[in-house]
Amino acid sequence: MPKNIIVYFVALFLIIGSIFFLSSYFLDLQSQDNVKKNSKLIFEAKNISINLNFKESNLLLKLSSSMINSKKSEKNLYVFKPEISIKGEDKFFEIKSSRGKILYDKNLIELNDNVLLNGAFFSKKFFGETKKLTIDLNRKNLYSEKISLYLDDFRFLFNEIVLKEKEILLKGNPIKLFQEGVMTSQTSVIKINLDGKLSFPEKLNVKMSK
User: Which of 17, 33, 158, 169 could join 162 via S-S bond, C-beta 3.0 to 4.6 A?
Assistant: First the structure.
């Protein structure tokens, strides 16, 4: 049976300062800032680094934040100016956003406001942007209402990135491909293979530019 994130809060108060540790199946969090308690917050700390694992995967995700806090009534961790790196054998992402939250009971990360992406799939460099982005640690995917991504000479508009061991899938309903001055195309799935080449498992509708 799949395991969910289980969070244990341990506050160690010393004469000078304190160190807060947050540990779980997915989380390994370290900070050298004091944990602050008040009537609304369980804790608040600055300059946080969190290591996360995708389920049944060798992909590693690291989230850094200028501040993190949690409210008593919620199972969320709120992060401010988060910077995320996702690393695998042939994959690398960098993701930045203005704010976001970790839903630790659902194994999700939600990023909001000006989400920027860049990195490489199997040596193919890319960069892109979206308004909001959700990272699902269980399903090993990233999804949004619309992701704009530049790869090779193409611009892609789509909804989902699926992280597989030997391939990357881009999914959309539909995916739109733009090659300036050449063509505009639509399909539902694009596969990025180990050799970096694109393949199209589904029907590809192509409209050549005049």
Answer: 169
Global pTM? 0.79
Contacts 24+ apart (CB under 8 A), 146-152: 147/117, 149/117, 150/126, 151/121, 151/124, 151/125, 151/126, 151/192, 152/124, 152/198
Tell me how far apart the alpha carbons of residues 196 and 190 are, in angstroms, rounded to a whole number: 12
The total number of structural domains in the chain stands at: 1
Please return the burial class of 180, using the count of CB atoms within 10 Å of its CB with bins 0-12, 13-18 and 19+. Answer: exposed
Q: Which domain covers residue 28, as residue numbers?
A: 8-208
Q: Let me know if residue 2 belongs to a domain.
A: no
